[in-house]
Amino acid sequence: MTLRRTLKLGVFVVGLVVVAPLLLLTWLEGLARAEILFSAFAQLLALVPSRIGSLLRGAYYFGTLRECSWETHVGFGSLFTHRGGAMARNVSMGAYCVIGHADIGPEVMMGSRVSIPSGKRQHFDDSGQISSATRFDTVRIGRKCWIGEGAIILSDVGSGCIVSAGAVVIKSVPDRCIVGGNPAQVIKELS
């Protein structure tokens, strides 16, 4: 491990200590399968500015999400709405992103105001009828993707893709493509 990475890990551990009371309360809440405190603390930490805020958000999600690397950057105002999400190593998220049940692969870079809700059928049952029961689908973002400013991702995105700013992804995107538009269409396949 390099000296720089060792120092980053040390700073991260300090962040974990700072958010430890929040992690404990959220863990206790998780035993009852609730997410009220999880959401409240995520929203609170989303408002902490600068690198300190990013560090605290990263430490909080490391301790609360289904899976999360300690090497992430979560921008100001950005938050996960459910603890069912996952962030791999070296994910970088801009400001004001809202993420639901999503598996974000390694080395993904997201611009600001990216939304990844928990699929596209949250309020419909299997027959397509509106239902009071909420249904969460997990949206998967492959490794080394770039997601542009204001994109809305409702379906899986393959590895090595570029999603243009403002795109609305409603169908799965294959690996190594550039997509854009509303609804998003493949603009170019990358070699």
**Rg result:** 17 Å
CATH class value: Mainly Beta
Structural class: alpha/beta
Which fold does the CATH topology refer to? Answer: UDP N-Acetylglucosamine Acyltransferase, domain 1
The number of helical segments is 3
- Sketch the major β-sheet: 7 strands, mixed
In percent, how much strand structure appears in the residues?
Answer: 15-25%
Description:
This protein has 191 residues and is an alpha/beta fold. The protein is built from three helices and 16 strands. It has one domain (3-189): UDP N-Acetylglucosamine Acyltransferase, domain 1 (3 Solenoid), CATH 2.160.10. 29% of the residues lie in helices and 21% in strands. The strands form four sheets. It has a seven-stranded mixed sheet. Strands 1-4-7-10 form a four-stranded parallel sheet, with helices on one face. Strand 15 and strand 16 form a beta hairpin. Helix 1 runs antiparallel to helix 2 (36-46), helix 1 (3-31) packs across helix 3 and helix 2 (36-46) packs antiparallel against helix 3. It is globular, with a radius of gyration of 17 Å.
Question: How do the strands and helices of this protein lay out in sequence?
Answer:
Elements lengths: L2 H29 L4 H11 L3 H15 L2 E2 L3 E3 L4 E2 L5 E2 L3 E3 L4 E2 L2 E3 L4 E2 L4 E2 L22 E3 L4 E2 L4 E2 L8 E2 L4 E2 L7 E4 L4 E5 L2
Parallel strand pairs: 1-4, 2-5, 3-6, 4-7, 5-8, 6-9, 7-10, 8-11, 11-13, 12-14, 13-15
Antiparallel strand pairs: 15-16
Helix pairs in contact: 1-2, 1-3, 2-3
